[in-house]
Amino acid sequence: MTDTLxxxxxxxxxxxxxxALYAAxxxxxxxxxxxxxxxxxxxxIRAAWAxxxxxxxxxxxxxxxxxxxxxxxxxxxxxxxxxxLQSNKSRAxxxxxxxxxxxxxxxxxRRLNExxxxxxxxxxxxLQVNVSGEASKSGVDFEALPxxxxxxxxxxxxxxxxxxxxxxxxxxxEAQRAPLARLHQALEALRARFPEAELDTLSMGMSDDLExxxxxxxxxxxxxxxxxxxxxx
Length: 233
What we know:
The chain is of the alpha/beta class. It contains nine helices and eight strands. It is 42% helix and 16% strand. Helix 3 (61-70) links the parallel strand 2 and strand 3 (78-81). The radius of gyration is 17 Å and the shape is globular.
């Protein structure tokens, strides 16, 4: 993708988000755009940064570390780890990322807490919830959310921010909204249970269901193809 095409697609994504927020009668700043840059070259991230994009999502640890090394000169860049995370790769995420969206078990949370350098701010954490009950998907069950949240709130090097989900594809807006509404309700329940926590994030919504996610309260939408084009096979 050329820089011109990237500029056009990023502008289009921003307009789409703005239109969705307006249609949902939400403030223009109520949701942020997370540019999902996995499998895309560092040069493309650099070009998006030059266009004002600051938050980027990666799913593969080694690939992300190589990009971070190449882009270390970029001020204000914020790295989100959004893919499934194996315990043996948690140290790199704890040391090199600002956010992790895919925490779904106590063991992983405790490792990230132990491995987060003390000179860095606490690692921002979203709990990944399996909203569609798919056996093939990562994520904690709704019933186990309160206990996992309580565990993380007691870990000083982690900062619990909210919930994340990747729902099963759905054909209609109403079908897309249903699991996302459950996620929003779960976040509200956690807020009531843990009023001292800064639970301000719903990481949901991708290229195919952005509008549904905004209607259901998303604060961080994850767009990859809509910004960077189709991923290479």
